[in-house]
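Researcher: Go.
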Amino acid sequence: MRTPARSPDREPFLERLPLARDRPWIAALVMAGLVAFALFLRVASAESLPPGFPYVTFFPAVVVTSFLFGARWGSVAALICGIFSWYFFIPPEFSFRLVSGGFIALGFYTFVVVTDIVIIHWMQRANTKLANERERSRALAETRQLLFRELQHRVSNNLQVAAGLLAIQKRQITDERGRLALDEASRRLGLIGRISRQLYSADGATRTMQEFLEPLCADVLEASGRNGIRCTVQVEHDAPLSSDAAVPLALIVAEAIANAIEHGFRDRDTGHIEVILAREGDELVAIEVRDNGHGLPPDFDIEASDSLGLKIATMLAGQLNGNFALTGGRGTTARLTLPV
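Model: Structure:
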């Protein structure tokens, strides 16, 4: 889902400066108002100000105009304010004739307003450049996210196609063991394809283990065709699921559920499988798949088992730096422990 671009009305105020770039008449009116207000204040405070402050109310008008509308309008405001100060407040007043002190006053005014305008202009240019770079980075990140999701989608589709081809090929195999092997391979490829679709939510956020395990259990039960068996997920401690661990974790849990369906309920139409996610201490997360089926044979040893699914689960647990084990009792418990 594409993130909408930020509208100009929602941009921070500083990133919209200078204002009214496409409506210069607004800038001209506001500038004229600021200059007129500065002149009014200077005239009104003439008797209360000591001699030698001809520009005191005009500096703010130049700074505010430059800040709001840019260097061009700030320069115009500086020129008009300078003319007003020169004519009305620099001796001899009401004249453009200058004496020695007038040259110094005009030079000081010119230096101050040019410095203010240049500094404001540089700051606004830097702020505009920063905003453009931030928008470019946002667009690149969005494009990368879209491309990655498209890749996930295509990989998932290809895996589903491969699983379908294996299922078709199985029909041409007469050997029962070969048919079973192709059926298991097709099931695992289909599962990996569905996992790829579930790795990220619609807004691109990483899923938690609970959000991942619930549809996984439903997928495995649906693929088995055993409608009388229920599977529930109980979460005592949820945790985020990294994309690197998603596929091996899902395969391990799927193998444990499939093993419970195949062996624990081999001659039963109903049963219950419970997937429990809990924290063990500060460094481990435990996932248990419990069933109320027949349980394990008395002499069962997972290391000596010839079950391909259990061998895959044990191998994948080792790749995740975890441990996979089966214990008997009233039913069977498959236990996977992983580092946090």
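Model: Helices lie at 24-44, 58-69, 71-88, 100-170, 176-198, 209-224, 243-264, 308-319.
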